Amino acid sequence: MATTSKAENTGSSGTAASGASPLPHQIDEMIGDLASSSGVSVKTADFAELDAQAPTGNAAALDNLLDVTVTVTAELGRATTSIGHLLKLNVGSVVELERLISDPVDLMAQGVRLARGEVVVVEDRFAIRIQEIVDPRKRM
Questions:
Q1: How confident is the model at residue 113 (pLDDT cuts 50, 70, 90)?
Q2: H/E run at residue 27
Q3: Superfamily assignment of 67-138 in CATH?
C-alpha cells in the first residue's frame, strides 16, 4: 500500500489538491512546470486595453431594446392538482381555477406579471382591457 505525504499532494506550487484555488502567481508557476515537463511552448495571451466609454444615457440604452420581441400571455387562473387527476381528464372535463370570475386576469410578458385587467372582445378576438399596472418593484 503506497502512502503519500501532504507535500507530495500539493505539488511544487504549494496548493493543496483538496480544492483550494491557486493564486495567479501559482497558476503561472504550474503552467511553467507543465510546459517545461511536456516540451510545450506556453505564452501568456496579450490583450489590448479596453477604453472605458462614457455612458450614453438611459434613453439610448433603452433604444437598443425597443425592437426585442417578447411573448405576452393572459392568465385566467391556476389550479393545483395531482398527476393522477390530470391523467383522468377527458373531453368535456372541467378544471376549476382558483380565480373568481370577478377577479381581473394577469397580463404577463415572458412569465412576469406586468398588468391586470378584464377580458373583452375586439371584433372576433379576445383582448385585455388594462385596469392596473403592476408596481415594477413587485414584478420580480
A1: very high
A2: helix 24-38
A3: SpoA-like (2.30.330.10)
pLDDT of 3 over the 90 cut: no
Say yes or no to pLDDT of 24 above 50: yes
Comparing CA positions, the residue from 79, 68, 62, 76 lying closest to residue 110 is 68
Query: Phi and psi (nearest 5°) for 122?
Result: -120, 115
Decide if 70 contacts 114 (C-beta within 8 A): no
Domain boundaries, the chain: 67-138
pTM for the full model? 0.51
DSSP conformation class of 64: T
**pLDDT at residue 1 tops 50:** no
User: What secondary structure letter does DSSP report for 62?
Assistant: H
Cα Rg for the chain, rounded, in angstroms? 30
Q: What is the pLDDT of residue 74?
A: 94
State how far Cα 28 lies from the chain centre.
Answer: 33
Q: How far is CA 1 from the centre of its chain?
A: 48
95 has pLDDT over 60: yes
Amino acid present at 38:
S
For residue 21, what is its C-alpha cell? 484555488
